[in-house]
Amino acid sequence: MRKLTYYVAATIDGFIATEDGSVDFFPVGGDHGPAITAQYPETLPTKVREALGVDRRNLYFDTVLMGRKTHDFGVRTGTSSPYAHLRQFVVSRSLREAPDPDVELISDDPLARVRDLKREKGLGIWLCGGGDLAQTLMPEIDQVFLKLYPIVLGKGRPLFGEGPRLPEAARFRVLTSRVFEDGVAFLKYIRVR
Length: 193
Description:
Layout: E1 4-11, E2 15-17, H1 32-39, H2 46-52, E3 61-67, H3 68-76, E4 87-91, E5 103-106, H4 110-119, E6 124-129, H5 131-137, E7 143-149, E8 157-158, E9 172-179, E10 185-191
Parallel strand pairs: 1-6, 1-7, 3-4, 3-6, 4-5
Antiparallel strand pairs: 2-8, 7-10, 9-10
């Protein structure tokens, strides 16, 4: 069975974006980027892959899930199909149709759809954001890959949204961890079931 992995960047106080959705506060550069990208080249948007000359096959993920706000961020940067090298899904109750022919819309019961996707053959499923969707999909999240930046934002969009909490704690254990010279920690957690 395929795994659902929430792979995301966050501040040390647990925010993935500012309240308006900006991620400009995350520094670009440093030694963490090339190392992590080498391991997960499919997590770069298609336009970035093309600009950098990255043509490696998908190593870990072949499917990406995004909430509408996360997808809207890509639209603001000029693309409605940000990960054309992956099978793309946008989860939204407000969209009436898929935002792009290469993007599939999940408009209701994302948990059931994810359970179906996990039963299919293939590589892993990447949940790239956002926090509200991560909270909704928590029962099916198998791993959390966290790029933890040494930044305190103070307020913003939380790593796991602001909706109702789970009936019981979801437990994870550290699979691997690495701290880079630039201060970014890359932590891989696996679900304890």
